[in-house]
Structure formats: structure tokens, C-alpha cells
Task: structure prediction
Amino acid sequence: MIPSLKKLEVILNNVADGVTVQDVTGKLVYANKEAARLLGFNTTTGLLSASLQDILSQYELKDEDGNEVPLSKLPGRRALKGKNEKTILSFRHKDSPSVHWSIIQSSPVFNDKGAVEYVVNIIHDITEQKLAEQQKDMFLGIASHELKTPLASIKAFTQLTKRHLLKGDDTSAIDYMGRIESKVDEITKIINDLRDLAKIKAGMLEYEPEVFNFAELLRDIIEDFKTLIKTHSIVLEGKADTLVIADRLRLKQVVTNLIKNAIKYSPGADKVIVRCEREGKHIKVEIVDFGIGVPENTKDKIFQPFYRAENADKVGGLGIGLYISSEIINYHQGELSVTSNVHKGSTFSFTLPVKPHKA
Result:
């Protein structure tokens, strides 16, 4: 049984894709609500009352290779020749920097005489898919660069070590071996972050909660930094000798990552402050640096995977450390956040619930 036009319209207005129908002149004679939304109109009436030229004049249309697409090359126009057409296009409103991607499937509708009378266009929004692909490509480029750099250093130091060992120069060889070990640690960190990212995406990151003194953990971390870092002093402030129930190694991973970031993003400073205070049933931890800061419009984005702030282009990294840290803190019923001023520094903070006292 064929549904009535009214029922058909109800159905089409509730599908996830945009649907339009155009006549042989190219004029739109039907559009559902999703089509109106995708094309920047509040109502289908507003869309249908506009000419195709007026609609398209508001947008910059490009194909997957970045070439501009003229009206004659749109799939709806090509389908007027009697064949199904399918293409992927990017849409950018000329007043907006945002780019949207869609798959457009256009199919001709023939009359009793076999001539094309209408063309039906199905518009499927794939913006999220395209953004994910772009992020993946960008991430692979960054990851290959980040791995290439320490590997090149390892090769160079290995050659130098071999040369000095042949000369009997053990002192220089030992120094180069230490540098090789440092570069291996860098690669191990990258591999571990990639592994943790994959586990988080699969919901399989392991946690092993235990009871421990969080202030003692902070002191241990800072002592480790004192033996490795000579450019910055790490200062511990506050008193929070409090027991927590948490995964000790995972929280060490978070704090270590935040301190490393504080050092990396404050090349002109010489100090990082680690502050820990008890606040009711929680402890609050702050890592304070005096570096380049985080622009206001990127504060929410820096905790997303693969994102790196524009003012951090010259600083290496995969762009996943803060995402992993945020996920670990979320598991512990806390929240990782940032306050910052460009050129003045940043404060990354998180809270953790303390271990309740026994009655």
C-alpha cells in the first residue's frame, strides 16, 4: 500500500538524511527538514522560496581534491541526463570558517514517455567521519615525525659509540650509551601512549586501585625530576598527607605528564609549582607553569585526542597526553581543567576523593 503524500512527508521529515526534489529547470520543488538544516535554512519554506543560484551563492563548494565545483557539475544537474550520480562535496558558508562534508546521491525520475521529469537528491552528512579521517592523517604524520627524531638520534649515537669503543675511549662511549637510553625512553613513552589511547577507545584501560599517601607520591615524582631536569626547579607547596584509593601508577602517569608539559611549554621560565591541598572530602592538585599559556578559544579543545594548540606548533608531542590524563582522572571521579593567560602561564588542576575514615 502506497502511503498518502501527507504520511510520506512525515516519514521524510524524520529521516536522518536531507532529501530534495528538483524539476528539469533545477528548481527545488520539495525539501525535508534535514535538507533545510544542512543548507542553512530554518524552514523548508524558506529553502524552497530561494532560487538554486541564491542558495549556492552563499557557499563555497569543493570536491575531495579541493577543486571548486560549478553548478553544471553538481550531481543533481548531471542526473538530468538520465543516470544516477553520486559524489562527495564540501560545503563552507562564506560567512563561516566551518566546513561540512556530504555524500550526495542524485537519481532521475522518469515520466510515462521515458523523459526525466524530476531528480531526487539524498544528502548524507559525513562531516564527523571526514574530521576523524583528517585527525587520523594528521596524527599519523605527527607520530611518524615524533618517532623519526629519536630513532635518528639513536642511529647517530650508536655510530659514535662504536667509533669511540674502537678507539678505546670508554668514557665517551658510556656518555653516548646514556643518550641512547634516553632516546629509547622517548620512543617507549610514545608507544605506551599509543597503547593507552587504543585501550581507552576500546574501554579496556586497566586500573589497579590501592590505598596510598598521595603527598608521598608527589614527593617521589619530584625527586625523580630533580635528577633528570636541570632547566627548571620543581617546587612542592601545600600539605596534603592524605590517603587516597586510586591507581598509583596511573596517577603518577598523570602528574608526570603534567609536569613534563609545564616544563616543555615554559622554555623561558625556570620554575614549576606543584601544589596539593585538602578540600573537604577531596584533595586538589595544581601544576603551575609560567610559560606560553593556552589561548582562550582552545582551552576546551586541548583535552581532545590529537589536538595541539596553534601557539604550540614548535613544541613536539602527539597531542594525546592530556586526553589520556583526563580519562584517568575521570575514572577516579575527578576532573582535569586548566586556567591560563597567554604569555603568562597555565595552571592545570584536578581533584581526587580521599579515603573515608572508618567509623
